Amino acid sequence: MGYSIPGAVIAVGILIFFLKIDQMIQWFSGNEGILIVSTGIYMLIAAYIIRFLAIGYNSIDAGFSKIGKQFLEASRILGKGGKRDVH
To answer: ∠ at Cα 49 (46, 55), nearest 5°?
Structure first.
C-alpha cells in the first residue's frame, strides 16, 4: 500500500492526523495555539514508516514462506509446541 498511495496523499493524511492529536492535547491542557506533535520529527517518521513498511513486510513474508513449516514440525517432534507453559 505504501507505493500505491502517492506521497502527497500520505503527507496530507499524516498532517490531518497529527493536527487532530494537537487539538486534543490543546483541549485537555488548555494551551491554545501551541503545536506540540505536528511540528516535530514524529510526522516525518510516521510518514516514512507508512511509505516504506510494505517493502520490508513483503520481503520478510517471502523469506518466511521459503522456510515453510519444517521448523515448526521439528520443534513439535522435540517436545516444544507453539505455546509455552509459563510457571
So the answer is: 165
Q: What are phi and psi of 55, to 5 degrees?
A: -65, -50
pLDDT digits (tens, 9 = 90+) for 24-75: 888 887 777 777 666 778 888 888 888 888 778 878 888 878 877 777 777 7
Model-wide pTM > 0.85: no
* Interatomic CA distance for residues 71 and 83, integer angstroms: 15
Q: What is the DSSP string of 46-81?
A: HHHHHHHHHHHHHHHHHHHHHHTTHHHHHHHHTT--
* Dist CA 62 CA 69 (whole Å): 13
